[in-house]
Amino acid sequence: MSFRYLLRVRYGECDAQGIVYNARWADFVDIAAGEFTRALFGSVTAIDLKLVKLSIEWRASAVFDDVLDIRVRTSRVGTTSYETITELHRLDGPLLATATTTYVAVGRDGAKRAITDHERATLLAGTDATVDHAHAK
Asked: Crossing angle, helix 117-125 and helix 24-41, to 10 degrees?
């Protein structure tokens, strides 16, 4: 089950050739991760997280005004961390990039903490919700 986040590429996210600048892909992954967390837990602050690893593999470019269909799913849940896979497609089109992210759950003091049974079950269950900030559908 994959969560979907639809985002329209804005002019300021592109280089002089109109292609999405490489650093913006991490922004897209982060925005989608926040919306994924909100869809799962009702709020982006329901679980405190630290991003500890982000890896992106590009296959093709995106350009100004493309609508990106960003799909997020949990791929692994450990004792204190979990991993997501994010696939970024052009809407109704090819896979453009894949990102793997690892998050660590932290307490109010910022120290690493165990993922609760409820959080584990929620992360593993996922959601098929779609958030459309591109107004594409």
From this structure: 120
- Residue extents of the structural domains in the chain: 3-125
Pairing of strands 95-105, 49-58: antiparallel
* 99-126 mean pLDDT: 96
What DSSP string runs through 55-70? EEEE-S--BTTPEEEE
Note whether 66 and 14 are within 8 A (CB). no
Q: Looking at residues 47-54, what average pLDDT do you find?
A: 95
- Residue 23 Cα distances to 17, 30, 42, 56, angstroms: 15, 11, 28, 10
CATH code of domain 3-125:
3.10.129.10
Half-sphere exposure of 100 (CA within 13 A, CB side): 5
Summarize the confidence of residues 125-131 as an average pLDDT.
Answer: 96
